[in-house]
Amino acid sequence: MSGVSKAALDELSRFARTRGQARRAAAMLATAGQQQQQQAKRWKSSTSGNRASEDGNTKTKVSRVTSSYFSTSSSSTTRTRSGRRRVVVKYEEEEDVTAAEEAQQEASTQQGAPQTGKQVRVTSTRTTTSTASVVDSVMEDVEAEEDEEAEKERLRRAPPNWETVYNNIKTMRSKRDAPVDTMGCEVLADPSADGPTQRFHILVALMLSSQTKDELTSKAVRTLQQQLPGGLTPHTVTAAETRVLEECIYGVGFWRRKAQYLKGASTMILASFGGDIPQTIPDLIKLPGVGMKMATITMAVANKQVSGIGVDTHVHRIANRLRWVRNTKTPEHTRVELERWMPRRLWGEVNLLLVGFGQTICQPRQPKCHECLNKDLCPSSTAKTRRRGQQQQQQQQQQREGKRAAKVGTRTAEAGRASRRKAKEEQEEEKVVVVEDNNSYDAVSTVARVKKEEEVDVTADGGQEPTSSSPPPQPQPSPPHPRSRSSRRRTRTTRAQRETERSS
Ligand code: SF4
Fold first, then answer.
1. CA-CA distance, 410 to 400, in Å (whole number)?
2. For the chain, which terminal residue's Cβ has fewer other Cβ atoms within 10 angstroms, N or C?
3. CB neighbours (10 Å) of residue 341?
4. Residues contacting ligand 1 via CB (< 6 Å)
5. Catalytic site residues?
6. Please, are residues 248 and 227 in contact by the beta-carbon 8 Å criterion?
7. Which CATH topology does 163-382 take?
8. CA angle 173, 175, 176 (to 5 degrees)
């Protein structure tokens, strides 16, 4: 292989890493083919089929194309777990094609040799267009296969009910009444300006929109369009003083810093990109103040190329509320997670759809879940939570009432037990007293009998009758019945008396 063509093919491999650069790679191969006109080569692929890397994180699919010019060429598509892909085209030199073979090839081409399956017959080794078309065809085949597989893989990872939820959001957004619909970057470009200038307007609107409401962004872009002499172009922004830019965009978030970014980006666009905005994401993110999200949206809106999902704070929040992603912490992480399962055909529209939805219904604070068509499907629905809360409240109320009733029952039972215990104690006490009283009754009755006998003796002995002034004799209490309560009380009294007597 000549040094020139090898260098070109190395360059080809380097550039053929993404879908967008495949065509460019094909053009480079054509250039290499031009330089090799006198050295027709045969190429063959060294590998074909699917293979997985040792770590299991990468899968490579190799497609093989056979032609009379390129014996075989291989296009390998590498897919990693993160969803990133890398397309690498490899060619291997086998042997020189002789002049006779070349003539044969040309003859067969002129006869219009049929192409079957993935076999591609090169019309001429000396025409660059045919060489480019071979590579183009290879790449298209690879891309088509890859897209098909990727779509199937994505659908396997998709969350349940996502399509219903997505269609509900589309229905809710059908009125297009969100601020982003009337003041978003799509509508801020001056329709009377030329293409590059309109693209620049979109880029400026996106640069000013971060951390800023659409109303303020719209006002700032309109002011720039009207105030800068000559309108809003990279030239006028570069020529304007930073102070003037600051005055024009005053009110948007970080207006001082954004004025500097505008000036820096305009200067770079003029110096490095010929006055038009960059056409690829790697070039776009070189501009000061332009990040991945902005570059993705710029590619979709200004350059009409969908290269990913533009995830801002609204998309990030809603994707997490709907559990479309697994609790991601940053918008960039959300973008990667969403791109793992969301079909490519939706990547271009999902940003506008969810931003408007986030502005009108699924707002950051107090989302209007009661108005949302997804209130019964959304895991974060406050409507559902409220209903659940009411049910919980009812259950708690019932539990409280049950507990209260049980407590009352317990108290009643306790009271019953206490009264029974008391009664039992009293009965036991009573028994004891009765036993004691049986003894004491004899003693008391004996004392009373002795006293009575003494009185009788005194009267019989002629003793003085009790005078009228002297107190009449107190009747002795009749001994109580041993089993009555009053008898117990009296017994206690009697016992006390007996103690007193004993001590005296
Ligand atoms: S139910 Fe509520 S949280 Fe869920 S998507 Fe709708 S508005 Fe957002």
1. 15
2. C
3. 17
4. 321-322, 361-362, 367-369, 372, 374-375, 378, 380-381
5. 293
6. yes
7. Endonuclease III; domain 1 (1.10.340)
8. 70
